[in-house]
Amino acid sequence: MKKSISKSATLLSTFTTGLLLTSCATQKKSAENAKPLNIIYIMSDDHTRQAISAYSDRYGITTPNIDKIAEEGLIFSNSYVANSISGPSRACMLTGKHSHKNGFRNNSDSFDGSQQTMPKLLQQAGYQTAMIGKWHLSSDPTGFDYWDILPGQGDYYSPVMYTKDKRTTYPGEYATDLITNKSINWLEQRDKSRPFCLFVHHKAVHRNFMGNVYSDLTEFEGTDYPLPDNFFDNYEGRQAAGEQEMSIAKDYSWEYDLKVKSPDGTAAIHKFGGYDRMNESEKAVWDSVYNPIQREINDKNLKGKELAVWKYQRYIKDYLKTAKAMDDNIGRLIEYLKANNLLENTLIVYTSDQGFYMGEHGWFDKRFMYEESFSTPMIVRMPRRFQARGKVDEFVQNIDHAPTFLEIAGVEIPADIQGESYLPILKGKHPKNWRKSLYYHFYEFPGEHAVKRHYGIRTERYKLIHFYNDIDTWELYDLKNDPSEMHNLINNPEQAKNIQLLKKQLWDLQVRYDDPIRFQYPLN
């Protein structure tokens, strides 16, 4: 009997202990779930989906740290920008509004920091906000408890950065490492009793693509990369595409881009913009890599298509070097978050200010509404309590970050914000009323690379673009049958009804977003 009572008492004690442990674990989980979610927004510059292994295996490059974010979260296959150029893209993100509403249409504008922005609203809700890295909006940041930014485009080597109090040069530092160091330092020194929103804005992988001298300068050398099928595009039926100035063959320069003198010796290497910022040991490493390239091009006597292909190979190698350094540093940041128990209460968004051409149509750069630059990578890692994982097909745009972050923080989304919160998608839902089309508007002409002003609509299958200002042409693409956008169907009589429908949908978007261009170019 005693033995039986003792066994029952033991079972009861074990059961009670289990209930207490379960209750404590449930309470702890509930407490964790009740905490305001931290937000880290990592933005690269010109990092295209074609150079991220989670999206593409085209170059054989791996981006393991960006891929790890995708494995533990969501990868958006239909993420786009509203205006494919650096400053305007950043303004769209900060305000949740298209360029004509936030006032920053092109890189010659200055951002009006007095206007409503998402960081300001997060501040008012008790969040600490910080902006570190590339800002590129002319005026100084507002809405941030702390900021430390590059002036303009900034430099890769021995960069200058400045705060509201001082301007500092960092001899011997590499910009990508420095921005990561400063981001981690801010996380260390922040008020740890409050939620935070940290913007980590890399200079990489912006032209003119200079890798880390100490770790990456020899990477990808000796590898030949496949040419895109449309590298030698002749732009038939696409006037605006034929009049740009972003051709690898014609516009990718010797000294600035290729970092070597032209074979006839007319260009000096020092003009490329980074060499004179290096110390002597860095120059020695640099010379050991690029002097042989100089000898190679001097000896080959290349012309025409052969020279264009050689330039393409140099472009891809230098681009990927800067991308590798950035991926390495994203890994460092993630490791810090993991070591400091921040991963399970932090939303991490990785994206770029827009996409980029990696030889498609024979181009580098961005600006056009064609897919390579209109699209942008977007990968989101959520704490484990968010169950959604894998690929997302819904259309998202960079005006959506502002309302999403506000909803995460429990802030009422102002009525004048034009983006949509994708928080339901992060929770695994597929809203039936989610957008079925996207609006785009590019303004910077005349300007660098001579891309004409244009606006347009993208639906699941079709894209309709109007080039205007000093030109008046329309382009229509069937993205299902022509994903490379080589065949303009605007004059195809079989598309007449479809064109009228798309013009009506385009007009509806212009009305919805209140773009005044609709009064200047009314659609018939």
Short overview:
This protein has 524 residues and is α/β, with parallel strands linked by helices. It has helices at 2-34, 64-71, 86-95, 99-102, 118-124, 175-189, 239-242, 248-251, 254-258, 280-300, 304-339, 371-374, 401-408, 423-426, 496-512, 517-520, and strands spanning 38-44, 73-76, 79-80, 128-134, 146-150, 160-162, 167-169, 196-201, 346-352, 378-381, 390-392, 396-397, 437-442, 453-459, 462-468, 473-478. It has 16 helices and 16 strands.
Task: List its traits.
alpha/beta; single chain; 15% strand; 524 residues; 16 helices; 8-stranded mixed beta sheet; Alkaline Phosphatase, subunit A; 2 domains
Cα shape: globular
**What percentage of amino acids are in beta strands?**
15-25%
Let me know the largest β-sheet: 8 strands, mixed
- Tally the beta strands: 16
Unreliable spans: 1-28
**What gap, in angstroms, lies between the N and C termini?**
95 Å
The fold-level CATH name of the largest domain is: Alkaline Phosphatase, subunit A
Write up this protein.
With about 525 residues, the protein is an alpha/beta fold. The chain folds into two domains: about 35-210 and about 315-520, 3-Layer(aba) Sandwich (Alkaline Phosphatase, subunit A), CATH 3.40.720.10; about 245-315, no CATH class. The chain contains 16 helices and 16 strands. The strands form four sheets. The chain has an eight-stranded mixed beta sheet, with helices on both faces. Strands 13-14-15-16 form a four-stranded antiparallel beta sheet, with helices on one face. Helix 5 (about 120-125) packs parallel to helix 13 (about 400-410) and helix 6 (about 175-190) runs parallel beside helix 11 (about 305-340). The termini are far apart.
